[in-house]
UniProtKB/TrEMBL annotation:
GO terms for cellular component: axoneme. It is found in: Cytoplasm, Cytoskeleton, Cilium axoneme. The keyword Magnesium does not apply. The lineage of its organism: Eukaryota, Sar, Alveolata, Dinophyceae, Oxyrrhinales. It comes from Oxyrrhis marina (Dinoflagellate). This is Cilia- and flagella-associated protein 300. The keyword Manganese does not apply. It comes from the Eukaryota. Its main location: cytoplasm. Belongs to the CFAP300 family. Keywords: Cell projection, Cytoplasm, Cytoskeleton.
């Protein structure tokens, strides 16, 4: 049965079993992602929207002052948020609910596939080499979206 056709509970169980599988945990550990025990893994299925497909979605980065006019990502004093170093204004807007920048992206924006890809790229991982300019993140986000999504016509013609 295709994943997109699974009932929500069945999909949640599938994802939980997938990430708790010994082979999958081994691959994750080889990439530096550790969970001491399978029981501690609590993956969650969240349905994302794909309505934002235009990179203008990120114009608000400059409008809100997270990025300068030349694309330089504005820094901040580093603070740890649940293991994520908040070293720039983009991360602050993404994760710090107490920040005045948090409202840069609405709750519906945060459920956009485009947003999630961009934020994952910006946060990276333990061996990530961060970019100081937003353009590289936007280019890679756009490329990944093109590779992962395809547009098709519904029976209604839309």
């Amino acid at each position: 049965q295709p994943v997109q056709d699974m009932p929500a509970q069945e999909l949640q169980r599938f994802v939980a079993e997938f990430f708790c599988a010994r082979d999958v945990r081994g691959v994750l550990q080889s990439k530096g992602i550790y969970a001491s025990k399978a029981e501690k893994l609590k993956p969650e299925v969240v349905e994302l929207s794909t309505s934002a497909l235009n990179m203008q979605f990120f114009d608000k980065l400059q409008q809100a002052g997270l990025v300068s006019h030349n694309g330089h990502i504005k820094g901040r004093i580093e603070e740890d948020f649940e293991g994520i170093p908040l070293v720039n204004k983009i991360r602050e807007a993404a994760f710090d609910e107490g920040s005045e920048l948090y409202d840069t992206f609405s709750e519906s924006d945060r459920l956009e596939f485009l947003y999630r890809i961009f934020i994952h790229l910006n946060v990276g991982g333990a061996s990530n080499q961060y970019e100081d300019h937003v353009e590289r993140y936007l280019e890679v986000t756009k490329g990944l979206i093109r590779d992962m999504l395809s547009v098709r016509t519904a029976d209604s013609g839309e």
